[in-house]
Amino acid sequence: MGDAASGRGRVVSPPRTAEDIFKDYRARRSAILRALTHDVEDFYAQCDPEKENLCLYGYANEAWEVALPAEEVPTELPEPALGINFARDGMNRRDWLALVAVHSDSWLIAVAFYYAARLNRNDRKRLFGMINDLQTVFEVVSGARQSKERSSMDNGGRAKPSVKAENNGKGTDVAYGEDDSDHGETLCGTCGGIYSADEFWIGCDICERWYHGKCVKITPAKAESIKHYKCPSCNSKRARQ
């Protein structure tokens, strides 16, 4: 979880170039993704419907925070959706998280293009292109893109790449040292990073999302002994059932 000192409404040196704005966007996105996936139990507990209107903030230092909205008007930066906690107990948990994800995507774009107001047309277009190359928070949380890609595979189209490695008879999906071109736009389900051949990756056998080994604390050696890997998100879902 982030802390209030991490910078809400107190931007010391705002990003000015398309690259710096994208870096800020990516860091805030990583923070939001962590809240909605890896830290989801903590996030869920903090969104108490009995509390006042709460917002989910992601900061440029990749910390997140559930807090009351900024009091100053107008605020220095666009504010995220207000009152995300009120619907928590009135919706299916997965649907509620997806709703928060959609609102978070809108806020991330709003902040990025608030900073981009002084960029020229070509730089704004380039910024949007970099942002659009990443999965949205909603796509990561709901698995929307993976579902579309699996559907494309069933219909003969290009599907999300998958490498099935036989580990002494084990069936866990792992990817390490494979050609980048074989993995296309595979993104880490935790941090949203793009696949790189020099990093170890592991695929969840339940939701079929891929993860950096370091993001889920799985090493290549540890993966050798895993028959069926379940990511932290799928493990937490099973525990609640």
TrEMBL record:
<keyword id="KW-0479">Metal-binding</keyword>
<keyword id="KW-0805">Transcription regulation</keyword>
<keyword id="KW-1133">Transmembrane helix</keyword>
<keyword id="KW-0156">Chromatin regulator</keyword>
<dbReference type="GO" id="GO:0042393">
    <property type="term" value="F:histone binding"/>
</dbReference>
<dbReference type="InterPro" id="IPR011011">
    <property type="entry name" value="Znf_FYVE_PHD"/>
</dbReference>
<dbReference type="InterPro" id="IPR013083">
    <property type="entry name" value="Znf_RING/FYVE/PHD"/>
</dbReference>
<feature type="transmembrane region" description="Helical">
    <location>
        <begin position="96"/>
        <end position="117"/>
    </location>
</feature>
<dbReference type="InterPro" id="IPR019786">
    <property type="entry name" value="Zinc_finger_PHD-type_CS"/>
</dbReference>
<comment type="similarity">
    <text>Belongs to the Alfin family.</text>
</comment>
<keyword id="KW-0472">Membrane</keyword>
<comment type="subunit">
    <text>Interacts with H3K4me3 and to a lesser extent with H3K4me2.</text>
</comment>
<dbReference type="InterPro" id="IPR045104">
    <property type="entry name" value="Alfin"/>
</dbReference>
<dbReference type="Pfam" id="PF00628">
    <property type="entry name" value="PHD"/>
</dbReference>
<dbReference type="GO" id="GO:0005634">
    <property type="term" value="C:nucleus"/>
</dbReference>
<keyword id="KW-0863">Zinc-finger</keyword>
<dbReference type="GO" id="GO:0006355">
    <property type="term" value="P:regulation of DNA-templated transcription"/>
</dbReference>
<dbReference type="InterPro" id="IPR044104">
    <property type="entry name" value="PHD_AL_plant"/>
</dbReference>
<feature type="region of interest" description="Disordered">
    <location>
        <begin position="148"/>
        <end position="178"/>
    </location>
</feature>
<keyword id="KW-0812">Transmembrane</keyword>
<dbReference type="GO" id="GO:0003712">
    <property type="term" value="F:transcription coregulator activity"/>
</dbReference>
<dbReference type="InterPro" id="IPR021998">
    <property type="entry name" value="Alfin_N"/>
</dbReference>
<dbReference type="GO" id="GO:0006325">
    <property type="term" value="P:chromatin organization"/>
</dbReference>
<dbReference type="InterPro" id="IPR001965">
    <property type="entry name" value="Znf_PHD"/>
</dbReference>
<dbReference type="Pfam" id="PF12165">
    <property type="entry name" value="Alfin"/>
</dbReference>
<keyword id="KW-0862">Zinc</keyword>
<keyword id="KW-0539">Nucleus</keyword>
<dbReference type="InterPro" id="IPR019787">
    <property type="entry name" value="Znf_PHD-finger"/>
</dbReference>
<dbReference type="GO" id="GO:0008270">
    <property type="term" value="F:zinc ion binding"/>
</dbReference>
<keyword id="KW-0804">Transcription</keyword>
<comment type="function">
    <text>Histone-binding component that specifically recognizes H3 tails trimethylated on 'Lys-4' (H3K4me3), which mark transcription start sites of virtually all active genes.</text>
</comment>
<protein>
    <recommendedName>
        <fullName>PHD finger protein ALFIN-LIKE</fullName>
    </recommendedName>
</protein>
<feature type="domain" description="PHD-type">
    <location>
        <begin position="185"/>
        <end position="237"/>
    </location>
</feature>
<dbReference type="GO" id="GO:0000976">
    <property type="term" value="F:transcription cis-regulatory region binding"/>
</dbReference>
